Amino acid sequence: MKDTRITDTVVYIGVDDKTIDLFESQYVVPNGISYNSYVILDEKVVVMDTVDARATEEWFKNLENALNGRTVDYLVVSHMEPDHAANIQALAERYPNMQVVGNAKTFQLLSQFFSIDISSRAITVKEGDTLNVGSHTLQFFMAPMVHWPEVMVTYEQSEKILFSADGFGKFGTLDTEEDWDCEARRYYFNIVGKYGMQVQALLKKAARLDIQMICPLHGPILKENLAHYLNKYDIWSSYRPEDEGIFIAYASIHGNTAKTIKKFAEMLKEKGAPKVSLCDLTRDDMAEAVEDAFRYDRLVLAACSYDGGVFPCMEEFLHHLKAKNYQNRKVALIENGSWAPSAGKVMRSLLEGMKNITIYDEFVSIRSTLKEDSTAAMEALADALVK
Hints:
Radius of gyration: 24 Å
Helix content: 25-40%
Largest sheet: 6 strands, mixed
Number of strands: 21
């Protein structure tokens, strides 16, 4: 493990998991995931969260190396989700004098996951409480529903470090060289996206702190250009479009709708659209489709009719968007149907349950393949989209 010492007194003891295929059993992670955990070495020793059960053995080795014979005085539990909390009981049993720091909801959930009784060792904190461990002082701020109800973040006052729980995390192991924004965006909208209001509340608390470093529970430690990451979270959590562009999500059965949409994308580019991005919902990663829907300011939905409704992957996509609080966007609809087109009506009804969605008046209905009348309708829709 490289570069384990974050500062003279804070050590990284997390583990990269390169064997996992689906994070939370649903998100494809081609570059794996990191389970981050930290140790503060002061007069007292503090462990900041544990890791997933998949990484138990390596994590305990990292912990022992960092301790170098010392014992653990405190465990701070930021988040009770198993990918961070799986080893709480094992750690508590190994260090019987260790105290566990959490809030009231932390200990309620802890009793649900584990059989150990730590009531005599529990330190229950609330908003703004502090814990002095020597030259370091930890201050705790509640972050409910970012993205579980017990979540809290910890600010270390002397070195100005924010231990941010799942906030500012990303997919990918720490040795993965890739753009932070892309995988952090996919991570954010699919995992935290529903809770924008709660993230905004946390950002307001963070704005009052002098933060020099962010240590999340997944992804790289952020030390430079923190304004960039804070700004991204402000955009994402306020449901504002991040980029100007047109995202086209399509669902084609036999290829005619796909062929039509590719022609439509060329039409948009010829008319001066700044950015056009395509997604085949039958084959592409659903989590990336959700990410791009939030990224761009305009969305085009194109789907075949199916069993009197809409092709299932399009219906699934729209349910994902609704679950993640999709809002503040302009949406255009294109349907295909050979005898009784129904996709447009179903897509519209699913969009109506979302907040501040403007549906373009220009609507394209194709009968099997593109003809002169539907080509003219596509031209009109393209003009409206690039206006």
